[in-house]
Amino acid sequence: MPMTTPAENRKKIAYYIFTKDVNGNSVRIGTAYHHERGNGLNLVINKARYAAFPAKAKPETEEVGA
After folding, report:
1. For residues 44, 49, 54 and 58, what is the CA-based torsion angle, rounded to 10 degrees?
2. Pairing mode, if any, of strands 15-20 and 26-34?
């Protein structure tokens, strides 16, 4: 089994998340990583963790009275 360092185990950052301060300067407040399973994202914003996934397609239903 090959030895890996902690830096090698880290996920690659996919996106940086920015906001503007009162002076109009960009301030980085978080990062986003591709989710391990599926095509979602793991977001880390101000040390809080979130997961975001695309909405699932709803089956089309017949319109009543159309």
Report:
1. -160
2. antiparallel
Residue pair 34/53 in contact (Cβ under 8 Å)? The answer is: no
Q: Which tokens sit at 35?
A: 């989710």
Q: CA neighbours within 13 Å on the CB side: how many for 37? A: 0
Residue type, 13: I
Q: Cα(7)–Cα(29) distance, rounded to whole angstroms?
A: 21
Q: What is the pTM of this model?
A: 0.62
Strand partners, 36: none
Q: 38-47: per-residue pLDDT in tens?
A: 889 999 999 9
